[in-house]
Amino acid sequence: MIIISLTALEEPVHVTRPLLPDIEKVSNRMKEIWESRWITNNGDQHKQLEKELTKHLRAKNISIFSNGTLALILGLKALEVKGEVITTPFTFPATLQAVDWNGLTPVFCDIEKETLNIDANQIESLITNKTSAILAVHVFGNPCDVKKIQTIADKYNLRVIYDGAHAFGTQIKWRSVSSFGDMTMFSFHATKLFNTVEGGALVYNNENLKEKLESLKNFGLRGSEEVILSGMNAKLNEIQAAIGLEVLKLVENERKRREEIKKVYEENLKSIDGIRIITTLEGENNSFQYFVIEIDEEKYGMSRDYLHEELKKYNIFTRRYFNPLCSEFSWYRDLESAKYQNLKQAHKSVKNVLSMPFYGDLQLETVKKICRIIREIPVRLSRIK
Ligand SMILES: *Cc1c(COP(=O)(O)O)cnc(C)c1O
Fold it and tell me: 67-97 pLDDT, tens per residue?
């Protein structure tokens, strides 16, 4: 057996790195803003960003917000969702916090082993006379079973809202992911594929919602003195919109580089026993937001948690998204739907998946080295034993 000498990476590598435009280009836009003295409230940069994002996402309608969480909170409010919402425990806390801020009760549905998305086959059995919506998440950019979800929603007259925070650019058979359901939220946080430092948007098919959403994010105002809704402040300012306009120009190239990186990961990981790559679905275009693997402890010879810790010694900082499950929050734990026996797959997956370093500037040589380390770690450990 060949013993490869494994040394730590020279620089620490994290799961992501924000996509940043040329500072000169940002400065030019700042000059425009300074000259106009219009720094927030739907100024010129905001209008341009709306136009560019509409094109990029092939959106029928879009509203932009100061972050994805507020977009989701106000989206649920605009759709007048009441009572119970069927959702997934395997997501970022913000999904459930948007449910809570609307005074809604979540009903947790288990997830699919393959995609880690809500298991559409189990939704129907969770519907009660209080159910008014399905809030699904396109986890790691892989789309949910949008057809099945819509069929159920039509049958029971439910709203469908997608948390598409990871799905910027995801397509289903060349159709934009946000064309499905009543509404899709995108996050433009620094760690997301496309960022406005902080920011978010809602894309929706019903144009009548535009006026309501624009009012909700601006204190419920209509005109300058009439308050028609209990809104809040969730506007994106001109500075961030300007940065977003420059970041958007870099997204296509970033996606291409991530596609290359993904291929190198796949090539170098596929022969390792007990490692499954999550982010590959046939016939669908992923957003390339994350690169995630699943570890089968028995076959790989080591648990996910152990690997996560070991990798740190090599300067590789992975993330255990989405640990803990949202159904484990102290304020939800006692719900019937949050019980372990109802969410077996979610409990299993959350222990086994690991997000790997994934961003355009990551060198292919570094990716190969990370894969070699993943291959070697359990071998070395068994030698020590
Ligand atoms: C990032 C993220 C959010 C929150 O978006 P913000 O823009 O940070 O508020 C919501 N849901 C998921 C799944 C996310 O990953």
Answer: 999 999 999 999 999 999 999 999 999 999 9
Distance 94 CA to ligand 1 centre (A): 6
pLDDT exceeds cutoff 60 at 3: no
pTM, entire model = 0.96
Residues with CB under 6 A from ligand 1: 67-69, 91-92, 94-95, 137, 163, 165-166, 187, 189, 200
**Token pair of 189 as six digits:** 């946080």
**Closest alpha carbon to 213 in 380, 59, 4, 324:** 59
In testing the pocket of ligand 1, which one of 187, 191, 355 has its CB within 8 Å of the most ligand atoms? 187
- Residue of 189, 202, 232 best suited for mutating to test ligand 1, as the one with most atoms within 8 Å of CB: 189
pLDDT in tens, 339-381: 999 999 999 999 999 999 999 999 999 999 999 999 999 888 7
37/26 Cα distance (integer angstroms): 16
Residue nearest to atom 6 of ligand 1 (CA): 68
Q: Which atom of ligand 1 lies nearest, measured to the CA of 200?
A: 7
Q: Using 50, 70 and 90 to split pLDDT, how confident is the model at 385? A: low
Other CB atoms within a 10 A radius of the CB of residue 226 amount to 9
CA of 69 to the centre of ligand 1 (A): 6
Beginning with the edge strand found earlier in the chain, give each strand of the sheet holding 105-108 in spatial order: 61-65, 200-204, 183-187, 159-163, 131-137, 84-87, 105-108
